[in-house]
Write a structure and sequence with these properties.
Elements (H helix, E strand, L loop, with lengths): L3 H6 L8 E5 L19 H13 L4 E4 L4 H8 L5 E4 L4 E3 L5 E3 L4 H16 L5 E4 L4 E4 L7 H12 L5 E6 L2 E6 L4 H9 L8 E6 L5 H9 L3 E5 L8 E3 L2 H13 L8
Helix pairs in contact: 2-8, 4-5, 6-7
The structure holds magnesium ion.
Length: 256
């Protein structure tokens, strides 16, 4: 994987030729013990706002969080976004949509997941409406048995799939993910026709990396671990520093 400078070198000089897709947790913001403990300082929101202006609106957040949580994190800024791993979205004009094919099966499954999480006080269940997440950061030894239990429960629910993440297992709709979320955005202005860049940190971002690579775009993995991404940055601090460089100068001149 190449270094930051090579990443910048590969980008178009004119930022209006670039479409920026950014995961949130672990990419823009450091991870915390629980999702509710993650906070964004005002500088991060301001940086994203500056980039959005520079890119004529072609900036979107692509996260496992619901849209309303991203809005709370970056308030008062409201960005185009795909939430809940692509199960809901808001385009650059503010129009929203959601994936709903799986909701009946999710309702059927919900009691089983609730029961599973209730059996261990160290587990945190996050019911996001379109997805269900079981966080086990405080009980990492539960990873295998939780995955086995959820996989067994999902076997009879073809519209649902299991998403693995950092100390989290998530039930989400099958057939949508960060790759489909980015594809939807790229089909419409102001994203359409631009070189896409996607940065993420987790297993949930790998579909997005593969999709971006197939388009000849720029994929950036934040942090350690094997990845399909073509480039790598060390942590959210490095990611924000890289974005700041992009925001201040034409991309090719941002090489230091
Ligand atoms: Mg992440």
């Amino acid at each position: 994987m190449c270094v930051l400078q090579a990443t910048l070198q590969s980008l178009p000089d004119d930022p209006t030729h670039l479409a920026l897709f950014l995961d949130v947790d672990g990419t823009l913001l450091p991870l915390a013990a629980a999702p509710a403990d993650v906070h964004a300082d005002a500088n991060t929101g301001a940086l994203l706002e500056r980039l959005r202006a520079l890119l004529d609106g072609a900036l979107a957040l692509v996260s496992g969080r619901p849209l309303e949580e991203m809005d709370r994190l970056f308030a008062p800024h409201i960005f185009a976004a795909a939430g809940q791993h692509g199960a809901e979205w808001r385009d650059a004009a503010g129009a929203t949509g959601r994936h709903s094919v799986h909701l009946e099966e999710l309702d059927d499954l919900r009691p089983q997941v609730l029961e599973l999480a209730a059996g261990d006080a160290r587990l945190l269940l996050e019911d996001k409406g379109l997805t269900l997440a079981v966080h086990f950061r405080r009980a990492p030894e539960r990873a295998r048995d939780l995955e086995a239990a959820l996989a067994a429960a999902l076997a009879v629910h073809p519209t649902l799939t299991l998403q693995r993440g950092k100390c989290v297992l998530e039930v989400r709709p099958a057939g949508c993910g960060k790759d489909t979320a980015i594809r939807r955005m790229l089909d419409a202005p102001p994203f359409a026709g631009r070189l896409p860049l996607f940065a993420g940190d987790d297993a949930t971002d790998e579909d997005g990396f593969r999709f971006i690579n197939a388009l000849g775009g720029c994929s950036i993995k934040v942090g350690d671990g094997a990845s399909n991404a073509r480039y790598r940055l060390a942590d959210p601090h490095a990611m924000c520093a890289w974005l700041a460089a992009l925001a201040h100068t034409p991309a090719s001149q941002a090489i230091t």
